[in-house]
Amino acid sequence: LDQLKDERERGITINIALWKFETKKYIVTIIDAPGHRDFIKNMITGTSQADVAILVVAAGQGEFEAGISKDGQTREHATLANTLGIKTMIICINKMDDGQVKYSKERYDEIKGEMMKQLKNIGWKKAEEFDYIPTSGWTGDNIMEKSDKMPWYEGPCLIDAIDGLKAPKRPTDKPLRLPIQDVYKISGVGTVPAGRVETGELAPGMKVVFAPTS
Q1: Residue ranges making up the domain that contains 197
Q2: Torsional sign, CA 21, 167, 158, 60
Q3: Any idea where the Tr-type G domain is (predicted)?
């Protein structure tokens, strides 16, 4: 998903990126948020717009343990998502194709148990109800369809887990409130503000007021 030259050269996400796709049930907008702590402000900006969090943790030996340590990024991001009001999370236990992991059920069970405990301690009261999906972004295992390399896993693949989510209820009966996340200048179009409708409804032809104006 990384588009910026610096992102590709450093191998990390710096700015948030939006990508849209359709499942059998939903039109989904993915907000790709940076994981590196140097760009935590951008991560907060992206997460504040989301309805659901997809937390990707590495299954590799040492990688997962570093992420859930006192200053680990996994712990930090799970805490921020909870603080920002997200109620539902899907956990992708990624890199199951790693040479040390080798699609191991034992490693999956170990990480799932530890993540469940960590999430509960952070404040995710429904951590036991979340989907914990063993995946490989590199080989596509359990992303679009169930993988035959992990026959022991009986849960959904990522796309099916997304379709299994309940769409949040929107307060459409209240006045329109749309916090501006960013402003884009598009050639031939003009200035395009972007954000998420928090309350009310937005329709073509509506007159809106921006505040504050100074």
Answers
A1: 170-213
A2: positive
A3: 1-172
- Residues 116 and 119: their CA atoms lie apart, in Å, by 5
Cα(119)–Cα(100) distance, integer angstroms = 25
Place of tokens 């405990």: 117
* Tens of pLDDT, residues 58-86: 999 999 999 999 888 899 889 989 998 89
The runs of H, that is alpha helices, within the chain are 5-10, 40-47, 63-67, 73-83, 105-122, 158-163
In a domain, 153, yes or no: yes
Q: Supply the Cα-derived Rg of the chain in whole angstroms.
A: 19
Domain boundary among 148, 164, 180: 164
Strand, helix or coil for residue 79: helix
For residue 152, what is the domain's CATH number?
3.40.50.300
Q: How far apart are the first and last CA of the chain?
A: 36
Inform me whether the pLDDT recorded for 214 exceeds 70.
no
**29 found inside a domain:** no
Structure tokens at 150: 């992990």
The separation between CA 147 and the C-alpha centre of its own chain, rounded to angstroms, equals: 22
